[in-house]
Amino acid sequence: MPVWMDALAHHQSASQEAAAASLAADERPEPLTSPASLPRAAHALTALRLVLLLLALALVSQFFAVVPAGHEGVLLRFGAVQPQVLSEGIHPILPGRDRLMPMTLRLQSQPFRSEAATRDLQDVGFEVAVSWHLQPGQGARAYQRVGERAAIVASVIAPAVEDRLKAVVASFRAEELITQRQQVKEALRHGLAQRLSAEDLELDAVDLLQVDFSEPFRQAVEAKQVAEQEARRAEFEAMKAQRKAQARVFEAEGEARAQQLLQSSLSPEVLEHEAIEKWNGHLPLVMGHDNLALDVKSLLKAEKRQSQQERRR
Fold it and tell me: Domain residues for 68?
């Protein structure tokens, strides 16, 4: 083989070995302990731990149920209501088998609007507010018989209010609904309490928010009030006139009595004394009552006596 061919073959072999070494260096993985890979690995591990923790909490929470404050829990096992009720707090359950239905024991208030006829056949509209609560320990029975709050209001309370309101109002006259409002409330409360107690509900209060009478009845009431006011005014005026007449009679009687007393007290001596007190010193004859005459001599003597008395003083 010529020398130049041997050199060419040697050069090609060296080039192939260098290329193989370079390829092997590129395919070699970086070590795990390199500074660039450490933060990424730490973040991935933290995220993995957080996800696993959340999954564990979600899984564990399926085995517990919470009864809120002011409620009691009705336990359903495969859909069947269990007789025992659960108190407030956390209770263990088995997912897929048990389910918890909270029933409130808090005070509930529900307004109702209805119409009823009075004893004198007047149609009256009412707005009533009923306050009630579930009897403690009866949540399971109430849920099994009726259902939740909405069903209790629609199926138990609303019909009871409608029935008792019509029965109570029918025993009163229309005007008595105003004058005997408290008696109406008490009668309605008594009937509703008995009706709701049979359904494991406790009645707390009944309030008559609004009572609406028909327009003809309101007009009749207003006319009656006007007539009563006019009658009272006429009675007052008559009494006032009578008292004025009595006052005039008393005044006339008093004046007549005063005249009698005055006439009985006017003796000749009194008249003479009055004339002397009012004399101005002139000498004409002074005429008195009933042609009584006082002469000048009498006046001079009286004047002299009076002067002497003043000197002595």
Answer: 64-104
Give the Cα separation of 239 and 229 in Å (integer): 15
- Say if residue 282 is in the same domain as residue 200: no
pTM given for the model: 0.55
Label residue 281 exposed, middle or buried (CB < 10 Å: 0-12, 13-18, 19+). exposed
Say how many domains are in the chain: 4
pLDDT tens-digit readout, 86-113 = 989 888 888 888 889 999 999 999 999 9
Instruction: Residue 68: name the closest of 94, 51, 44, 87 by CA.
Output: 87
> In whole numbers, what is the pLDDT of the chain averaged over residues?
77
CB-hemisphere CA count at 13 Å for 30?
7
One domain, residues 196 and 276: no
The residues, any chain, with a CB within 8 Å of residue 295's CB and separated by 6 or more, are 285
Q: Is 250 a member of any domain?
A: yes
Q: Which amino acid is at 155?
A: S
Does some domain include residue 5?
Answer: no
Q: Is residue 284 included in any domain, yes or no?
A: yes
The region, left, alpha or beta by phi > 0 then psi within -120 to 50, assigned to residue 81 is: beta
Contact at 8 Å (CB) between 200 and 140?
A: no
Looking at mean pLDDT, say which of 27-41, 188-202, 287-301 comes out highest: 188-202
Tell me the CATH number at 143. 3.30.479.30
Structure confidence by residue, pLDDT tens digits, 251-309:
777 777 766 666 666 566 655 656 666 655 555 544 554 444 445 556 556 666 666 66
- Using alpha carbons, select from 62, 75, 80 the residue that is nearest to residue 103: 75
Residue 193 lies in a domain: yes
* 177 and 136 belong to one structural domain: yes
